[in-house]
């Protein structure tokens, strides 16, 4: 029995599909099938039932998957302990970014990590917060920065900051936004966060609380996309306080103060138990220092 077979077993169990599992463990569909067959032959039990939608764990598979997870966890701990005993921190960390790198201090993070842990490499992946949480849980990412809280019991979260968000439009709309009621606000085009973004629920709550029914919306999450839409008078949008300050100082934006200010958490998230991994522990140490937590 090999560890790669157990990793394949876990990937197939979570994905319910050989092809998707192959993408996770970087193997072809025939290789995935071969891994599972070899494991089934060695264990003497059938692990999966084939269905029209993919595969499902058998009763035996459902019991053995827990043992497989425990074995893989023990192997990770063993590898981490060996690194510690060698007196060095090495390896690769895939890190999710939920917003623009400058706000997350990515440049200084890379500089500090390179200086203090030169054998530790970071891979940066920018995605919406919901996607980052999912990717950490399925082990495609090791850690990440996310907005809002952590709804999952298998993840740990460190609160880094609580920026405030405001509804902002173009500077030319300043007077309109100061006096606009639900009907006029509904007539504006609004930037609408996409499904995996926690700001979608916040914006829907603002609409509900203030009886706003936008006639038209534009789906977007990236600050690089949202900023010109606001400045050029194409739409209203939720904007972070540091961006709001810049827009007001430069005379490019106006705040709809009647819709209030909305605090949102920024968290650093990783899988429970990974704190014993020297690489994750090193990253957490640097992140805490940078954010002063």
Map the helices and strands.
Blueprint: H1 3-15, H2 18-25, H3 29-43, E1 48-51, E2 54-57, H4 59-86, E3 91-97, H5 106-116, E4 120-126, H6 129-137, E5 143-147, E6 155-161, E7 164-170, H7 174-179, H8 182-187, E8 189-192, H9 199-209, E9 216-219, H10 223-231, E10 237-240, H11 241-249, E11 253-255, E12 261-263, E13 266-271, H12 278-291
Helix pairs in contact: 1-2, 1-3, 1-4, 2-3, 5-12
Keywords:
5-stranded mixed beta sheet; 12 helices; 47% helix; D-Maltodextrin-Binding Protein, domain 2; Arc Repressor Mutant, subunit A; globular; alpha/beta; 4-stranded antiparallel beta sheet; 293 residues; 3 domains
Short description:
By secondary structure, this protein is α/β, with parallel strands linked by helices. It has helices at 3-15, 18-25, 29-43, 59-86, 106-116, 129-137, 174-179, 182-187, 199-209, 223-231, 241-249, 278-291; strands at residues 48-51, 54-57, 91-97, 120-126, 143-147, 155-161, 164-170, 189-192, 216-219, 237-240, 253-255, 261-263, 266-271. It is 47% helix and 22% strand.
């Amino acid at each position: 029995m090999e560890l790669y077979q157990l990793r394949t077993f876990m990937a197939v169990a979570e994905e319910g599909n050989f092809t998707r599992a192959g993408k996770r463990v970087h193997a072809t569909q025939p290789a995935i099938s071969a891994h599972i067959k070899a494991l089934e032959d060695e264990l003497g039990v059938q692990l999966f039932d084939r269905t029209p939608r993919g595969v499902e764990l058998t009763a035996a598979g459902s019991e053995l998957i827990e043992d497989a997870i425990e074995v893989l966890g023990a192997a990770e701990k063993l590898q981490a302990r060996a690194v510690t005993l060698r007196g060095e921190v090495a390896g690769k960390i895939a890190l999710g970014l939920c917003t623009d790198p400058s706000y997350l201090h990515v440049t200084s993070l890379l500089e500090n990590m390179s200086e203090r842990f030169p054998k530790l490499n970071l891979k940066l992946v920018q995605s919406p917060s919901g996607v980052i949480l999912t990717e950490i849980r399925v082990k495609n990412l090791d850690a990440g920065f996310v907005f809002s809280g952590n709804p999952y019991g298998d993840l740990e979260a460190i609160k880094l900051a609580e920026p405030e968000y405001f509804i902002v439009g173009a500077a030319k709309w300043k007077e309109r936004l100061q006096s606009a009621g639900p009907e006029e606000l509904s007539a504006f085009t609004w930037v609408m966060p996409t499904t995996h973004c926690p700001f979608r629920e916040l914006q829907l709550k603002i609409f509900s609380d203030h009886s706003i029914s936008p006639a038209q919306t534009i789906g977007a999450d990236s600050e690089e996309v949202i900023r010109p839409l606001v400045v050029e008078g194409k739409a209203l949008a939720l904007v972070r306080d540091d961006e709001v300050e810049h827009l007001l100082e430069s005379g490019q934006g106006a705040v709809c103060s009647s819709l209030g200010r909305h605090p949102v958490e920024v968290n650093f998230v990783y899988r429970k138990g990974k704190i014993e991994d020297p690489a994750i522990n090193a990253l957490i140490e640097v992140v805490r220092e940078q954010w002063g937590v």
